[in-house]
Amino acid sequence: MALRLGSIAPDFDAETTTGDINFHKSIDNSWAVLFSHPADFTPVCTTELGRVAKLEPEFAKRNVRVFGLSTNDLSDHAKWVDDINEVNNVNLKFPIIADKDRKIATLYDMLDSVEHDPTNVVDGIPFTVRSVFVIDPAKKIRLILTYPASCGRNFDEILRCIDSLQLSDKQPIATPADWQKGDDVIVHVGVSTERAKEIFPKVKEALPYLRFAKLPEN
To answer: End-to-end CA distance of the chain, in Å?
Structure first.
């Protein structure tokens, strides 16, 4: 069954660089980001994992736990983490899942294909694409992103999406194009303008169906 927004994220047990985990238990009451990598000792992935290590305090501020995944074993992961730390001047602490048999990658439909990128399939064995799953404390998938192996991810954008998701869980709003934390938001279509003026300190009606609002200070 295909994973969609709102699906329960499949649970699994795994070996990681920080010890054995059960995925759902590790998430606990936090949000989570699960993001895959084609293989260890690959250039784009090395920059990505270094970037996430630098941003880990930002994820923590949002009550988000990050989980990397690559299709190598733990011994390779340990050597690769040394490279990541050296090149990016970081101290990577979050878990990287060892998915050598590709069971988790298959469970989350992360594997590439010859039709899409023959360079990401070796001897008939596909590597993963750059999948991202944002999962909420109820273990529901709230956002799915898929990048090709050749394109490194923008983790500032992933943080921006998490800000939007968490905010819309608390307020009857949506966020406009290029929205950044602190910008005006869009009043949810299910809220009348009259009601919106009771909720928000300032409401501007651009069109009957497009109302911008400033969020309360708190």
So the answer is: 41
Catalytic residue among 33, 34, 45, 104: 45
Please state at what angle helix 43-61 crosses helix 155-170, rounded to 10 degrees.
30
Q: Provide the 8-state DSSP code for 140.
A: B
What contacts 3, CB < 8 A, 6 or more positions away? Answer: 9, 10, 108, 109, 133, 141, 144
**Which candidate, 115, 104, 93, places its Cα nearest to that of 71?**
104
Q: Torsions phi, psi of 205, nearest 5?
A: -95, 105
Q: Which two tokens stand for residue 183?
A: 């910008």
**DSSP code per residue over 105-125:** HHHTT-B--TTT-GGGEETTE
Q: Give 174-216 pLDDT, tens digit per residue.
A: 999 999 999 999 999 999 999 999 999 999 999 999 999 999 8
Residue 161 annotated among the catalytic residues of the structure:
no
Dist CA 105 CA 155 (whole Å): 20
Rg of the chain, C-alpha, whole Å? 19
Q: What's the CA gap between 129 and 185, in Å, rounded? A: 33
H helix or E strand, kind and range, residue 125? strand 125-126
